[in-house]
Amino acid sequence: MKNIILFVFILLAIAQAKTSDFSIIVDQAFDAALFDVTEDYDRTISAVGFSKEYKQTSNKSRTYSDAFEYLASVSSKYGAQMHLLKVDNEAKIILSNASKLTRFSEAVALVKTPSNGYFVGGHTMDGTLLLLKLNSSGDVIFTKTFGTKNYDRMNNLILLGDGGVLTIGSSVTSRSTTDNEFETGLGNNDVYLTRFTQNGQKLWSKKYGTIHDDRGVDAVEARDGSIIVISTTSYDKHKDVTLMRITENGNKMWLKHYESETLLIPHKIIRLRNNDFLISLSKYDDMQKEQIRLIKFDLYKNILEDKTIYTTYPSLLNDIKEFSDGGFIGVGYVKDTYNTDGLVMIFNSDLSMLKQEHYGGENYDEFKAIAILHNSQAVAVGLNTHEDSQESNMWIIKLNRDGSMAQVSVKVNSLYDQLCDVYKEEIRAKAISINKDLSLSFTDKSLYFEQGKYKLTNKQKFFLDSFAKKLTPFLKKNRDFISTLEINGHTSSEWGGANFTNSYLNNSKLSLERSYSTLSYIFKNQDTINQQLLTEILKGSGNSYSKKILYNNSEDKVASRRISLKILLNESR
User: Fold this and answer.
1) Rounded to the nearest 5°, which phi and psi values hold at 566?
2) Which helix (H) or strand (E) holds 199?
3) Is 350 a domain residue?
4) CB 403, CB 372: distance < 8 Å
5) What's residue 46's pLDDT?
6) Would you say residue 85 lies in a domain?
7) What Cα–Cα distance (Å) separates residue 486 from each residue in 25, 343, 457, 540, 563?
8) For labelling, which of 17, 391, 491, 538 has a CA lying 20 to 30 Å from the CA of 560?
9) In what order do the strands lie in the sheet with 202-208?
């Protein structure tokens, strides 16, 4: 268990609903799924879950007289292993790590470390809890196995302010009040919490519960270092929800029970930007149909808002996150008459639903977790099942701010390389220069404007004919990724006899006229199809002398009287 082995160039089939949709389905033999996701510091995306593969564990030379003994011998051939995936902005898998533990295991949670590595939490199939710390390449820094002698399960892993982590789950009751981890309860299961330092040192493990069946669901750290824990208590036909606030050392501060005549199931708790908290739950209506319930409360267990989101079909949210403007995005599943789809919901700050989207095919699909990205997009992970299949697959999709499907990114470097190839002759002749930010300048002296002039010369027109003839095919090819083509006019800083204000304003007007004369010439000399394309992306602007050309810290007035272009990409790229 020293390493999680990196599979480089694994043959993974990536199926997409459309060639440009950012939807990755990793189609492997046997069941697989993803349970958590995070954005890396290099803007790539990492997710964890499990995959299964063949393991040769039976003794082929042995004969069996008992069918059940034979079935037991082959039961571990197909087992789950923790799996880490990393994808880039082009929806390409750049890292795929499957653990090679001697016991089958599943990863349920993933959090980032300050060094761009990860903490991964999970459990073995026979009831041992696992905590791994990985570097940015997925190599194991350390592995901790822990838990009781009974059957344990991890449900989540929470990153704490000191760089350590808290695991939350459940453990079969020890049934001994002398157990030093025992806090309360003698039921079937107890809530089980364990706290680790960032170096993997276990600080404490504690159990909490009632005489009934208690299971830990999720937890979150408050700004003061205390921890809010959400759990369930099951008895008879009831499943109640319990909120508990504990100190950083695990000592109880308060409890709050939500009793319900119908089934009530919590899924996620998050801390809001104002230090209040939000819980996502499922409640069952009179028709025994799942409905989404969202509860806001403060640090002192006061309920601030309690709202049920009624939907046509049974729905739940496994995860929910807050945007910087106070809105929310949640993911889970929706069950219609024929199948189950991945569900995305957008809410405003008052928890009113603004929009919902369903994703998936004609079988079972579900989102387990979501992370908001740096550009206000989001990424959701879960499981997808192909039509007529009984095996689930790992699934990653990227979403726009409104819940719609994002498109696959084209790297700026790729567009830069394409532009350089398109204009390789002009670059060689030093007629133009292209920068990696996709800005382009006309640098041949014959393409500069004379002082105070904006009308195009014959040489400029001749060049623009050739230039535009190469530009429009490039724009068409990459239209899905380009939002704007800017044509910017520039001037030198002088304006004879004018004061500062008039000098700037006169040059501003002149730069706009240079931009317009270039823009209009290119536009007029296109056919109708190309003109329609340009109407969608073309923009003229004047920069006055704000971006004059300097040479040895002195203004090059001739070179400053020029035109430049810049290609801007869609924000979702």
Assistant:
1) -145, 135
2) none
3) no
4) no
5) 95
6) no
7) 37, 38, 21, 6, 10
8) 538
9) 152-159, 165-172, 189-196, 202-208
Q: What is the pLDDT of residue 337?
A: 78
**CA angle (246, 248, 253) in 5-degree steps:** 25
Q: How far is CA 427 from CA 421, 430, 558, in A?
A: 9, 5, 20
Please report the DSSP string for 274-314 in residue order.
TS-EEEEEEEE-TTS-EEEEEEEE-TT--EEEEEEE--SS-
Q: Are 111 and 38 in contact (CB under 8 A)?
A: yes
State how far the Cα of 215 lies from the Cα of 155, in Å rounded to an integer.
Answer: 9
Q: By the 8 A CB rule, do 7 and 339 touch?
A: no
The backbone torsions φ and ψ at residue 304, rounded to the nearest 5 degrees and listed phi first, read -95, -30
Query: How many Å apart are CA 343 and CA 399, to the nearest integer?
Result: 12
The whole-angstrom separation of Cα 571 and Cα 501 is 35
Unique residue bearing structure tokens 């390789």: 424
Q: Which pair of structure tokens corresponds to residue 275?
A: 């230090």
Q: According to the model, what pLDDT value does residue 268 have? A: 98
Which residues form the domain of 481?
A: 412-569
Q: What is the mean pLDDT of each run of 10 residues along the chain (573 residues)?
A: 31 36 88 95 92 60 53 53 89 86 86 91 91 88 90 95 96 64 63 96 93 93 97 84 96 88 90 97 85 96 94 95 97 91 96 95 95 95 91 95 84 83 94 90 94 95 95 91 93 90 94 96 94 94 90 88 91 50
Count of residues making up the chain:
573
Say if 418 falls within a structural domain.
Answer: yes
Q: What is the CATH number of the domain that holds 448?
A: 3.30.1330.60
Task: Give 130's Cβ-side CA count (13 Å radius).
Answer: 28
Report which DSSP code applies to 364.
Answer: B
Identity of residue 235: Y
* Contacting residues for 489 by C-beta, under 8 A, at least 6 apart: 454, 510, 511, 512, 513, 514, 515, 516, 518, 540, 541, 542, 543, 563
Q: Which two tokens stand for residue 471?
A: 């530009």
Domain count, the chain: 1
Residue 460 lies in a domain: yes
pTM over 0.90: no
Instruction: Return the pLDDT at 243.
Output: 95
- Residue 21 tokens, joined: 């949709």
Residue 358 CB coordination number (10 Å): 16
For 144, 146, 174, 472, the CA distances from 149, given in Å and listed in that order, are 15, 9, 8, 69
Q: What is the pLDDT of residue 179?
A: 55
Helix/strand/coil for 396:
strand
| Helix (H) / strand (E) containing 18 | none
How far apart CA 11 and CA 446 sit, in angstroms, is: 54
Residue in 343, 390, 345 with CA at minimum distance from that of residue 363: 390
Q: What is the 3-state secondary structure (H, E, C) of 502-520?
A: HHHHHHHHHHHHHHHHHHH
What lies within 8 Å, CB to CB, of 280 at 6+ separation is 266, 267, 268, 269, 292, 293, 294, 316, 317, 318, 319, 320, 330
**Residue 176's CB: how many other CB atoms inside 10 A?**
9
